[in-house]
Amino acid sequence: MNTHSAFAQQFADTFARLDRDNLHLLEQIYSEDLHFSDPLHELHGLSAMRHYCEALYANVSLISFEFQQCHELTQDQAVLRWIMTYQHPRLAGGRPIQVPGCSFIEYHDLRVHRHADYYDAGALLYEHVPLLGRVIRYLKARLI
C-alpha cells in the first residue's frame, strides 16, 4: 500500500474514532480550506466542519461509522464506502438507524480539502419522521 492509500485508510480510521470528546482530531485529517458537502449540507472551512460536528454529536445519542471499503482513485483522491449507524431520540422511536453511503475525498499534504458524502437523505432522516415517513415509504413502494 502506498502513502496515499495509507492516508485514505488513516482518514477512515480517524473519522471512525470521532466522538463529541475528541473533535480536535478533525485538525489531523482536514485542511483549513476544507469544502464539505452532503445531501443536506455544504460547509466551507475547518471551523465550519467542527461546529457542524459539535451540533451533530450534541443531538444524537449514538453515531458511528463502519468503513467497509477504501479505494484510491489517484494519488490524491479516494472513495470510501461506509455504513453510518445513529440514534436520535425523536426519530424511529429512538431505535438505531443504519444508512449506507460513500465519501469522495481529495487530499494534499496529508489533509483532506474536499469531502463529499453521498447517501439517501430519505433513509437518513425523512423516512423516520412519523407522518412524512409513511408518505415516503408509500411513494417508494408505488415506484418499485
From TrEMBL:
Sections of the chain in a coiled coil: none
Residue span, SnoaL-like domain: 14-115
Protein name stated in the entry: Nuclear transport factor 2 family protein
Domain of life: Bacteria
